[in-house]
Q: What sequence folds into this?
């Protein structure tokens, strides 16, 4: 039996919109606040409820809005104090009608867990090298998206590149920011999209470090030497955030 192009496109669109588990949680939260008398959700509300950075919440909300599942409305919520009206996200009418449809299960968690188990069977140094290499390749691809095909036009100082890396990581599910302290520059992540998989298989953290290395290698000006990139803190070690230092 052949599959119609429209059906394939629909499945692809749904997978893109709901494939991320955090985005699914945000959609369901918006659904709960978008009934007949609901006022929708704001990025700050989602950040507090789901436990992500406000920038991450806004990224997922905008993705859902771009896919036609949420619509953006502006106005002051009843009972709220004076001030700038909140940007709120509510389910569109069609989405409310299909809100009981079961959302697809994403396979990334399964694949990450499988990768972690496979890496655990290798000697630690070899496993970390492989994970970091994969991260670097992905980081270089991300940098191309930031600078275009001609990377030389996007070369910048290390400090400027660190901020660009932090912004790119945030768009990919991390809640990242750059900071400088004690003569070192750092990328601080307060949310890890790898979740429990990284805790169960800490070698996955090397992927994160590799992504930073790959992006910086492509972005940093040749005259601004890139030093060693190291993981200083991580959720997998029991820390309260992840820190990658240069």
A:
């Amino acid at each position: 039996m052949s599959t119609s192009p429209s059906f394939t496109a629909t499945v692809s669109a749904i997978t893109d919109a709901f494939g991320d588990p955090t985005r699914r949680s945000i959609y369901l939260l918006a659904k709960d606040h978008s009934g007949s008398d609901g006022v929708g959700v704001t990025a700050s509300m989602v950040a507090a409820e789901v436990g992500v950075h406000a920038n991450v919440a806004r990224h997922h909300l905008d993705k859902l809005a771009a896919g036609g599942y949420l619509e953006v409305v502006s106005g002051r919520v009843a009972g709220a104090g004076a001030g700038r009206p909140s940007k709120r996200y509510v389910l569109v009418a069609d989405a409310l009608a299909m809100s009981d449809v079961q959302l697809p299960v994403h396979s990334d968690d399964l694949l990450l867990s499988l990768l972690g188990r496979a890496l655990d069977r290798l000697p630690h140094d070899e496993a970390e090298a492989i994970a970091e290499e994969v991260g670097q390749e992905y980081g270089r691809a991300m940098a191309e998206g930031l600078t275009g095909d001609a990377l030389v036009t996007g070369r910048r100082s290390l400090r400027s590149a660190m901020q660009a890396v932090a912004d790119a990581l945030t768009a990919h599910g991390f809640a990242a920011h750059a900071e400088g302290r004690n003569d070192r520059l750092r990328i601080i992540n307060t949310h890890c999209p790898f979740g429990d998989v990284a805790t169960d298989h800490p070698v996955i953290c090397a992927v994160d470090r590799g992504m930073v290395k790959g992006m910086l290698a492509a972005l940093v000006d040749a005259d601004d030497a890139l030093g060693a990139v190291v993981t200083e803190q991580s959720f997998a070690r029991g820390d309260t955030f992840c820190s990658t230092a240069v």
